[in-house]
# Entry
Amino acid sequence: MKLAISMLLALLIAGCRNNSGSLRYQDQDPAEAYTSYASGYRVSDGGYYKLVTVLNPWQYSRDVSYTYILAGREEILPDSLRHLPWIRTPVKRVIALSTTHVAMIDQLGRASSIVGLSGSRFIYSPEIRERISSGEVVDVGYEQGLDIESIVELDPDVLFIYGVEGNVVATLEKLTELGVPVVFCGEYLEPHPLGKAEWIKFFSLFFDLEEEASAFFQDIDSSYNHLANLASTAKEKPGVLTGLPWKDTWHMAGGKSFAARLIKDAGGDFLWSDNSSTQAIPLDLESVYIRAVNAGVWINPGAATSLDDIGRMDERFMDLRVVQEAQVYNNNLRTSTMGGNDYWESGTIRPDLVLADLIRVFHPDLLADHRFVYYRQLK
# Structure
């Protein structure tokens, strides 16, 4: 799914430095912004080097920033910036702790640079799975189970890390003390599908592939907005239920979340759109069931592969109209034998294809010839 490239980069944005040595961010001038949708990182071009600042990289973090300096040679760096973590670019050896990071590096044509990752059995990419089987890529564990010794032995040029909570800072500090260059990523927090996809431009900075990434993203942006405009012509919007409960709690997507935006842009009426959260909200089954009776479509029901799987979670679900009419669709069409799901890999950088699938679900007549890429109807 790699696209042709032809576009020059947008101008880069600068920031001002605070006492801690990290860049403090200000409102971006739209004419100079490196990103159009992503709000989790900013870039400043120093000519021979680039400053990359990652903002609030875990849930509920506020006024947190990490700045890195990217350059081919350390001797060209200004003395005033030598206190910042330096990443030699282009990087050749990479450890990626998220399948999203793996997908973006793969899309850039640099899958061969990945020497370590987290959760190898959940990888979908055939090329990377082959490298895992051959021993070229090592599984370094995850969260508190990270294999620090293996990480140090792999001697990466950079390790891309993410965190759900602030305790990930302890891992960052430990790895940094051992000489491992660590870079925070927060793409999973982006509320707009194109915002998450635009992180491919972030990763491109480490490989000196900015022009390629910019051209790729421009195509995705154009395709996504064309499809969203098409969906906006629909006269009726089906009520949409999403997710599945876990241990009697339904972690429903927030009304301003990534999932909610996809549903809206595909011409659906998310039943929890009145909620203002960008994060998942915990709900009891009874409150969900009350609204679910109005659902015309149910998407993303966890690991369910059939309607019977849903019934085994709670037999009351089988009484819902959306189940009786078999209007239940899951995003697990493309999965590996070990459980890797391409929706969480290439789907993150191809939100236009995800959107096309959802339009086909919500409004079949608008995209009658579209063949599902990530979704399938449960029976």
